[in-house]
């Protein structure tokens, strides 16, 4: 068995249950009711229960960005570059919501796990809203890849022991 690290964006249990019920009901709709509406329901269910993330295969030295549904992962494997260090970066994520002519923007603090190579190039492997979770994941990458961690969550950046 390959030594693979997988991180997926979490999906709430309510979304999973609701999406699974719609997924099952959509097949009934396709077979016994309206095919077009059934496929619309199926696509909505897939949207609800799917997740995005990344995988690193340590044995083959490859990685991929994945789209996952029912624990089946899709994505193309690429060779891992020679990573130099891990960075935990604090940023802001904006989301705009439009409804009935009104719109608003929500801003959340997000923590990104970036693996840097070739001095300033990076690949974002994980995204979370929890700082402790970000450092937990970074420690996992540190152990698996033997890299140092740079804490870039504050104005003053520092290396983590």
Automatic annotation (TrEMBL):
Keywords: Membrane, Transmembrane, Transmembrane helix. The keyword Transmembrane applies. The chain crosses the membrane at residues 21-49, 97-117. This is Uncharacterized protein. It comes from Flagellimonas okinawensis. The lineage of its organism: Bacteria, Pseudomonadati, Bacteroidota, Flavobacteriia, Flavobacteriales.
């Amino acid at each position: 068995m390959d030594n693979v690290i997988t991180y997926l964006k979490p999906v709430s249990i309510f979304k999973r249950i609701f999406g699974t019920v719609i997924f099952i009901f959509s097949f009934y709709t396709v077979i016994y009711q309206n095919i077009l509406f059934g496929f619309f329901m199926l696509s909505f269910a897939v949207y609800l229960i799917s997740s995005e993330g990344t995988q690193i295969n340590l044995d083959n030295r490859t990685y991929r960005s994945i789209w996952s549904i029912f624990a089946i992962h899709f994505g193309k494997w690429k060779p891992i570059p020679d990573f130099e260090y891990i960075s935990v970066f604090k940023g802001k994520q904006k989301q705009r919501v439009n409804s009935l002519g009104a719109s608003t923007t929500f801003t959340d603090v997000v923590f990104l796990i970036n693996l840097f190579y070739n001095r300033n190039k990076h690949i974002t492997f994980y995204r979370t809203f929890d700082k402790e979770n970000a450092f937990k994941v970074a420690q996992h990458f540190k152990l698996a890849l033997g890299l140092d961690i740079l804490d870039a969550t504050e104005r003053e950046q520092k290396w983590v022991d």
